[in-house]
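Hmm, what's this shape?
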Amino acid sequence: MADEKIVAAAEATAAKKAPAKAATAKAATAKKAVAEKDTAVKKAAPKKPAAEKAPAKKAPAKAAAEKKAPAKAAAKAAAKAADKKTPAKKTATTGLKIKLARSFVGRLDKQIATAKSFGLHKIGDTTVQPDNEATRGKLAKISHMVEVTNA
């Protein structure tokens, strides 16, 4: 009778373990099937290079824009052609003329580097820089070493 209980208990534990193993086996096969489908889809649809896609999309858009506003398209094309033919001119907007008046002797490394970033290497060197926030900030750090005038 004791043997029967042991055999029955062993069969019960085996029955409990068997469905768990079967479920994990089914899950594993399902994952493999999904992975195979993903790889099949990737292989079936080869990707085109981006260079081939871009011109195909832009050409109809340009044609549609030219049909809608031919005057605007012609003006833009003329402006682009003019830009390519003539080199960019430097406009003489407001600038600052900076002259190094004091020596680098005894100055901090940051101050020396700031002066050299302007192109000032020795006493008497001058440069013209744009009048903007970055230039003004640099000048604030070395204002005791330079003379600044409007260019």
About this structure: Strands lie at 95-100, 126-130, 146-150. Residues 115 and 121 are 7 Å apart (CA to CA).
